[in-house]
Amino acid sequence: MTAASATLQDLLREATSHLAASGIDTARLDAEVLLRYVLNTDRTGLFLRLPEPVPDAIRGPYAALIAGRTAGEPVAYLVGMREFMGMPFFVNASVLVPRPETELLVEWAMEWLSRHPDAAIVDVGTGSGAIAISLAAAIAPTSKSIVVASDASADALAVMTRNRQIHIGRGIVDRIVAVQQSLLSETTGEIDLVLANLPYLTPEQIAENPDLAAEPRMALDGGADGLDLVRALIADLPRVLTPTGAAGFELDPSQTAAVESLLRAAFPDATVRTIHDLAGLPRHVVMERGNPADMPGTIG
């Protein structure tokens, strides 16, 4: 078969084999997403076009994308986009790629906000802004809630700001404030809800996972036990959290018991629980101050 006679189906099959030989578990899916990207089509459109000859214009760009994926570049960085909570988010190497499990933390926060309107919210370590923007888009137009998207990285905040503009039609621009700060170092007022998907991996975990090589180390490394930043944030929460406030953390499953203990020590009268992810693993620890009777039943 000559290059001229190759179809898109042939190209997809060859790319899938190449990625699989490189040890990529999601070879077929990745090859397909990248092909859809260069063809500027959706999944149905790609399937309809598979019998067509390969357009000369996409050969070079597609080969470059496959080479990038083979080298360990995440698909989201290659195409510059990742979906989260049904919304598209621009991503690059300055931020982590949003993960599906984080949607559960956002869903918990949305439920809490339904019981606490007009809340002041801080998304600590916002990265791409996926958490902050998803929450802002879900808040009722009549609410007075403000979402502070904070990060120590100016580059990450630039990505968040770009995503805020992407979703300008959702009425969120005036609701989200970008703040460059380390944890809550520049926060002086009272906060009702703090959400944190902070670096929580150990250096050993990062070294053992080659899929993380392209993502920013600053957003991954949580120190010797992965809890350096989480521990510091919890220690500072009593300074800013309102008497009826709440906080939620995304963590490695091995860390949830330790973080529950830290939160109970900092807030003895609060209700603390763990939310399990779709794989059944303990993933998020959430804490609510105030009347425990107002808190819904345990999730997971």
Would you write up a description of this structure?
The protein is an alpha/beta fold. It has 2 domains: 69 residues, Helicase, Ruva Protein, domain 3, CATH 1.10.8; 203 residues, Rossmann fold. The protein is 40% helix and 17% strand. It is built from 11 helices and 9 strands. The strands form 2 sheets. The chain has a 7-stranded mixed β-sheet, sandwiched between helices. The C terminus is likely disordered.
What portion of residues is helical?
Answer: 40-55%
CATH class placement of the largest domain: Alpha Beta
**SS-based class:** alpha/beta
Q: Please give the count of helices.
A: 11
Q: Which strand-content bin applies to the residues?
A: 15-25%
Terminus-to-terminus distance: 53 Å
Oligomer description = single chain
Order of helices and strands: HHHHHEEHEHEHEEHHEHEE
Largest sheet: 7 strands, mixed
Report the C-alpha radius of gyration, rounded: 21 Å
| CATH-defined topology of the largest domain | Rossmann fold
Q: How many domains, as an integer? A: 2
Task: Write out the CATH superfamily name of the largest domain.
Answer: Vaccinia Virus protein VP39
CATH architecture of the largest domain: 3-Layer(aba) Sandwich
Q: State the total count of DSSP E strands.
A: 9
Key features of this structure:
two-stranded antiparallel ribbon, elongated, 300 residues, 11 helices, Helicase, Ruva Protein, domain 3, Rossmann fold, alpha/beta, 9 strands
Summarize the helices and strands and which ones pair or pack.
Blueprint: H1 8-21, H2 27-39, H3 43-49, H4 56-70, H5 75-79, E1 82-84, E2 87-89, H6 102-115, E3 120-124, H7 130-138, E4 146-151, H8 154-166, E5 176-180, E6 191-196, H9 203-208, H10 228-240, E7 241-250, H11 256-266, E8 271-276, E9 282-288
Parallel strand pairs: 3-4, 3-6, 4-5, 6-7
Antiparallel strand pairs: 1-2, 7-9, 8-9
Helix pairs in contact: 1-2, 2-4, 6-7, 10-11
